[in-house]
Amino acid sequence: MNTDQLKETFTSLYGTSENEIHLYFSPGRVNLIGEHTDYNGGYVFPCALTFGTYLVVRKNKQRLVRFATTNFDHRSEVKLDEPFEKEGKSWINYPVGVLNELRKKAKEIEGVDLLYSGDIPNGAGLSSSASIEMVTAFAMNEIFGFGFDRMELVKISQNAENNFVGVNCGIMDQFASGMGAADHALFLNCDTLDYERVPLKLEGMKIIIANTNKRRGLADSKYNERRSQCESAVEAIRSEKKIKHLSDLNLDEFNALSHLISDETEKRRARHVITENNRALNAIEALNQGDLESFGQLMNQSHDSLRDDYEVTGKELDTLVEEARKIEGTIGSRMTGAGFGGCTVSIVKEEQVETFIREVGKGYNERTGLKADFYVAEIGDGSKQIV
Ligand code: GLA
Asked: Which of 27, 34, 134, 258 could form an SS bridge with 52, CB 3.0 to 4.6 Å?
């Protein structure tokens, strides 16, 4: 939907009023490398996509916030003079979670009518939820003049997801959605929150996102299980070395201390995190030097480690990656995001993109019976006001 259509839909839902209508946008993200490192205080390298969530907002002179979306036939509202309650598994928990975090900071909003509209493929693991949270936080901050900077809005959005929605995610998705910049990837140290916008010089190459279209059934519980395995590995190491996160260790230190982790599975989880931090650092170095071949190899190694040590890939993601690697113009291919379904990201030579989409799609379908969707990613800006 374009801006005019969104405004029209908004007034057909909420009627007309003398109050101004504003439009905001926050993107989804794709992570190039540095997976399952954010909640371990490590490095990530995501970029913001040009698709995401739009939010139309108008003040309403009532003591309530009304929610609607163009994506589903579902509307809801919350009263500003009452505690915010979770609504089952509804999408409105994302924005209400943000309002709840703002309230904890004594930032009370006034009544507003909200219309959301997302163009991120649903359930693809491209951070539609983070984009809903970020667009809400960004819009409320602008409209009510709360004065938070972008990093504070990122944290508010992550807290909404952790505390209200109940998903124990790290900071990467909300960060990428809030801080992205067109044609740049974001190199973030998730411990210090220092970051750098790195120009994505991919001469003659395209970033292809492929969606497995596999439902991510138990993803949240498996995600939380990985987190606690990492925490337990940290506890084991602490008997000899005081560390805050796994990412406090370099590979040599880890090799010297890994005997302290008695559980073999936890040891492999920890090894993934530490080797992935190295790969992320090396990949950024390679990109800065224009060495895309090395960048691609590191992406491949990242996937293999997520498959073998972290065990978050599964048949569908592995098949997409295997098929992608058969194509001559593929520089690198890996799963992106939490895993257990969702998407892969591949760097592919421009002239091979069509072949890639056709052949990978065919091979994947033959082997899994599922139909993959492909997107040539465009890297866009973080949260912004459109009107
Ligand atoms: C999900 C989480 C992120 C991050 C990734 C894995 O997208 O929301 O915080 O942990 O998984 O890298």
From this structure: 27
